[in-house]
Amino acid sequence: MNLEEFVNGFAEQFDDTDPEEIQAGTVFHELEEWSSLTGMAVIAFVKTAMGKKIEGKELKACVTVEDVYNLVCSK
Amino acid sequence: MAANPFSLEGKTVLVTGASSGIGRSTAVACSNMGATVVVNGRNEHKLAETLALMAPGSHVVVAGDLTGDVAALVAQMPKLDGIVHCAGIGHSKLCKQIEADDIDLVMGVNFKAPVLLQAELLKQRKVNKGASIVFVASLGYDYPNVANGVYCASKGAIVAYANCLKLELAQRLIRVNVISPGMVWTDLIVHGGMTEESLREDEQNSYLFHQYNQPEDIAYLAVYLLSDATVRMTGTNVHIAAGAKRL
After folding, report:
1. What residues make up the domain containing B88?
2. For residue B118, pLDDT beyond 90
3. Are residues B228 and B2 in contact, defined by beta-carbon separation less than 8 angstroms?
4. Do B172 and A35 touch (CB under 8 A)?
């Protein structure tokens, strides 16, 4: 999965946030809708779509969506 | 909030299983209360009959089997302010007779289909903030009933699922409630060796009011749960059973 596909998949985990608002450089923790539930959705998405397992604290340490992509790729 | 908090004016509501029974009554009641209704069922002819009973409006027919390509069905639907999961089947077999196919069939329709429909509605962003989701379960989830092991388990499963769903949707002020009816006079209850005569006898003996519910009783409760009168009501399981002492 390339970065663009990952960003689209990441954006799909939100219910109200406009997908356009989510780009590779987006600081996702600052999004109004970001919550522990969205975090769980992202972790499950990574597991299902990429077969990789990331931890909550690793996700917390990421700043941008691209950071998450790089984290997953490093697994 | 509307002047009449019980009105469904301006709301778009999906009703599954709208081709007969509780689903049909719910679709009709919602339309009478001003909702635009998305009616789903497998049988287009029967859905047309439901539509003919409804108050006029820009109602939408989405015919199709919820155990099939649910993503394609959901793609045809508008954004929703309410969902009433009515589609279901009855089933009667003694526990010693239950086979794998019975479980697949009953759990498939009564549990797997509404759960996957709900997932797809959320994935495709069809559920508005502040919406109301209603599952029609059955008192059978709690009242033991001979020859209904798989059916009752399927309803228990949906009650447990609804309890979890309410947690995940609370952030968006979406409420999730369950209606658990006792016996309701629909085609669903006359099956598996049950005759209307035996049911009439049970109605007299097991119900304080000596009558089963009618489909519209359940429909009116669904309307209440869909209306703004219940914006801060979530996670409830409302029993409606004419004082049933047992099922």
Report:
1. 12-237
2. yes
3. yes
4. no
